[in-house]
UniProtKB/TrEMBL annotation:
Residue ranges constituting the Flavin reductase like domain according to the UniProt record: 9-159
Domain of life: Bacteria
Family: Belongs to the non-flavoprotein flavin reductase family.
UniProt-recorded name of the protein: Oxidoreductase
One Pfam family from the record: Flavin_Reduct
Alphabetically ordered keywords of this record: Oxidoreductase
Gene Ontology terms for molecular function: FMN binding; riboflavin reductase (NADPH) activity
InterPro entries, alphabetized: Flavin_Rdtase-like_dom, NADH-dep_flavin_reductase, Split_barrel_FMN-bd
SUPFAM superfamilies cross-referenced by the UniProt entry: FMN-binding split barrel (SSF50475)
Length: 164
């Protein structure tokens, strides 16, 4: 029996964040940003998180070179960013230039103007199937009160309506 993992996981609500990293070459620093919902809190002491990225991704290649990244947790007012940064690298490269963001003090990776953010340094990595799992040491984090976060469920973005 073939397992329908994608179909089943559509029922699992997640938050949505923008992962950022960069590559340095002769022409300077080239930032990239990617929509990600595989963020998991792994350990509190020391603070560790994980994300899982598709093997073959150019974003992953950049991240494995710089060994740093940032994660910005999106709110309901920024769902348009989630759509843009789930597109091809060319589209993302254009969009990243006009992104409302600042370089993180500890990593240099862009932190988006969003309700909460983390800066990470690569601690561990392992390939799992067609993805690579990255364990990051959280070297800085912050939050500010904003609109409720986005929820990704059934392949769509939702605004959280309130507490049960
Ligand atoms: C809500 C949402 C969550 C996503 N989460 C992930 C993720 O955790 N890992 C991943 O590799 N791709 C994820 N993606 C897909 C990437 O954002 C998208 O495929 C990316 O633009 C492909 O870039 P690449 O060719 O550089 O890999 C997600 C897309 C959406 C819409």
């Amino acid at each position: 029996m073939e397992v329908d993992l994608r179909g089943t996981m559509r029922n699992f609500a997640t938050g949505v964040c923008i992962a950022t990293t960069y590559a340095d070459d002769n022409s300077g620093r080239r930032h990239d940003a990617l929509t990600v919902n595989s963020l998991t809190s792994v350990s509190l002491g020391p603070p560790l998180v994980s994300i899982s990225l598709r093997q073959g991704s150019t974003f992953l290649a950049d991240l494995l070179t710089t060994k740093v990244w940032a994660l910005s947790i999106l709110d309901a007012g920024t769902h348009d960013l989630a759509r843009v940064f789930a597109q091809s690298r060319d589209v993302r490269a254009e969009a990243v230039r006009t992104l409302s963001a600042r370089p993180g003090e500890h990593t240099g990776a862009l932190i988006v103007d969003a309700p909460a953010w983390l800066e990470c340094e690569l601690r561990d990595q392992f390939d799992a199937g067609d993805h690579t799992v990255l364990i990051g040491s959280v070297v800085a984090a912050g939050q500010q009160h904003r609109r409720p976060p986005i929820v990704f469920l059934h392949g769509r973005f939702h605004a959280l309506k309130g507490e049960l």
